[in-house]
Write a structure and sequence with these properties.
Blueprint lengths: L1 E6 L2 E7 L3 H11 L3 H8 L6 E4 L3 E12 L4 E12 L2 E6 L4 H12 L1 H7 L3 H15 L1 H17 L6 H35 L8 H65 L13 H22 L3
Parallel strand pairs: 2-6
Antiparallel strand pairs: 1-2, 3-4, 4-5, 5-6
Helix pairs in contact: 1-2, 3-4, 5-8, 6-7, 6-8, 7-8, 8-9
Length: 302
């Protein structure tokens, strides 16, 4: 379904879950390139910008945060941008953009503000709002990293490894989706220096600065995760070595005891076997050996 807002001779066409019928309508109405229409119906893995004499085609990606699973998913936004129109195509999972569309549609004051300076400024406002939605996600990832760091000594190792793996995956998704967009906004900044709307290069430069901040933050998080991963590896190695040491000490203590019990378990005549106190004597010898070895290990701090 195609929804439209028209104001100040500018149109914003909003298409959620675009279909082949929507694509055919756009192709006939606006004469877009066939490959661009095809990209709107398929998933494009990398952000890009294509410039034509009459319009621009932009593919952007934005992260969606799922609280229950603490995982990110990347959603695609396709934009067809002409002199007097903006067309946005995306899936229904990118709910923030639909919220923006409804707000602009129902609030006359906001609508006037968005449409006041032409299609270029309208697109800037849309993208700027979407970019700002990424910062709370960054804050959430930072909180999860701090939570692991503060509880690394008490949290179960398996839980730490699970959380670190999820965070590393989220950060990689962020980096792969955000990094290519820096070049797109640099292109827009350079192409709009002589645009009809004054200061559009400054507006796009502002978005580019926010993208650069997101990239820097993601890189910082990547370094923190690598540090935490090294710390947990060291901690797990230390705990494993301690467990092996304990088992080794136990085995060393039990070895002479097993030897004595095996020796006196043989069906032959043995020293002290005829004594009435032989059992107590053997137990005393075994206990003495055990205590002596424990004291030795304590003195040597093993």
């Amino acid at each position: 379904m195609i929804e439209t807002i028209e104001s100040n001779n500018i149109k914003w066409l909003n298409i959620i879950n675009p279909t082949t019928e929507d694509a055919e309508y756009l192709s006939k109405q606006y004469k877009f390139h066939d490959l661009d229409i095809e990209d709107c119906l398929s998933k494009v893995q990398r952000s890009k910008i294509e410039t034509y004499p009459d319009y621009k085609f932009i593919v952007l990606h934005f992260p969606i945060w799922y609280k229950k699973s603490l995982r990110l998913k990347i959603e695609e936004l396709d934009i067809l941008w002409g002199k007097d129109y903006i067309i946005t195509l995306y899936s229904n999972k990118l709910t923030k953009l639909y919220d923006i569309f409804n707000l602009v549609k129902t609030n006359e004051h906001i609508q006037t503000s968005y449409f006041s300076k032409g299609a270029d400024y309208l697109l800037y406002k849309i993208i700027s709002e979407l970019v700002h939605t990424v910062f709370p996600i960054m804050n959430q990832i930072g909180y999860e990293i701090d939570l692991i760091d503060s509880n690394i000594d008490t949290m179960k190792p398996s839980r730490i490894v699970e959380k670190i793996s999820a965070l590393r995956r989220n950060i990689i998704f962020l980096q792969t989706s955000i990094k290519p967009q820096k070049g797109i906004f640099l292109v827009l900044e350079n192409q709009t220096r002589n645009a009809e709307v004054q200061d559009m290069d400054i507006y796009w430069g502002d978005v580019g600065d926010y993208i650069a901040k997101l990239i820097d933050t993601a890189e910082d998080f990547q370094e923190l995760i690598q540090g935490l991963s090294s710390s947990i590896d060291t901690l797990l190695t230390f705990r494993t070595n301690n467990s092996i040491k304990t088992l080794t000490i136990f085995s060393v203590i039990m070895l002479p005891l097993n030897l004595i019990t095996s020796f006196y378990g043989m069906n032959i005549k043995l020293p002290f076997a005829d004594l009435k106190i032989s059992s107590f004597l053997i137990m005393f010898i075994m206990l003495s050996i055990s205590v002596s070895m424990i004291v030795y290990f304590k003195i040597k701090k093993i």
